[in-house]
Prior knowledge:
Bound molecules: S-adenosylmethionine
Number of strands: 7
CATH architecture of the largest domain: 3-Layer(aba) Sandwich
Strand order of the largest sheet: 3-2-1-4-5-7-6
CATH topology of the largest domain: Rossmann fold
Helix content: 40-55%
Distance between the termini: 50 Å
Number of helices: 10
Low-confidence stretches: none
Strand content: 15-25%
Number of domains: 2
Oligomer: single chain
Radius of gyration: 18 Å
CATH superfamily of the largest domain: Vaccinia Virus protein VP39
Amino acid sequence: MNNLEQFVAAIDRSHQPLSKSLAASIEEGGERLQVLAEDILEHYKRLANDDMAVLAKSFATMVLQFNRLQYKYEMTGKYVSQNYDDVREAVYENTDEMTGMMFGLACSQFAWSNHFKLWCFFEDNFLAKLSNIKQVLEIAPGHGYFGLNLLRRFPEARLTGIDISSTSVDMSRRIAVEFKESAAEYHLQDARHLDDEYLHAVDAIICGELLEHVPHPEEIFSSIGKSLRPGGLAYVTAAITAAAPDHIYEFETPEQVIAMAAGEGFSIVDQICEGTKPLTSKAKGPPRTLSMILTKR
Ligand SMILES: C[S@@+](CC[C@H](N)C(=O)[O-])C[C@H]1O[C@@H](n2cnc3c(N)ncnc32)[C@H](O)[C@@H]1O
């Protein structure tokens, strides 16, 4: 059995309610999804003692937790988590919680059809627009997969990853070793308050799934603006009406995110918005993610 077959078998065996939607995503994604899944599972499995059941369980736990929180959010109109320091303690500084969530999130890149479409956008629309890049900043790498894939395509580039979670820094470093990648380094750092260390020196920035995690997403845009060189490109995503244990800033529409980016001095080069159906009729909108490619005006 290949890795994806092992993953599917582990879901069928122990997390059967997820089997149908997983099979539908795999069918829809075709050969490209199979290649992505093999790559993700092959690398992350090694961090999970070569035990595919650990990855399947992490993914299933994350899906159930997200669904429960999405339901509560749709019924109350508010994300359950409101306080950044509480989330930091409960999630980012909780090694078991964070490891499971990052394993689950890495698997979602192929197992959720909306995340797979966003992955294709990252490769086809962001990576494809880059050329001659030397210095890359990955803000909040989490599991590290996005940045390491950029380096695969641009072997002459160097990547610095900064994350507030030591579990994420550790996981990204270990995955870089699995990738046999020596051009990536990761540091524990708060992306809300960057000094001038990357001042206008970075050719490309990846900042996936961070804006909704902080109380003032403008601070993240400001850090990106400060670091990006003129003409450089940033890949930035935002979750919209989508609950998670660590989402505290509620974007209600893609237009709100786009207006914030424009207010912080960015132009949108390209964008895609993908999501799923809401769980209830009370939802303000469907849970979705806006992915943008930005440049400084
Ligand atoms: C959902 S994960 C994103 C993982 C990956 N970028 C992706 O798109 O799948 C969110 C990450 O943001 C990090 N994070 C939260 N607040 C941060 C901050 N102020 N500075 C840097 N990283 C932060 C968390 O530790 C976590 O690794």
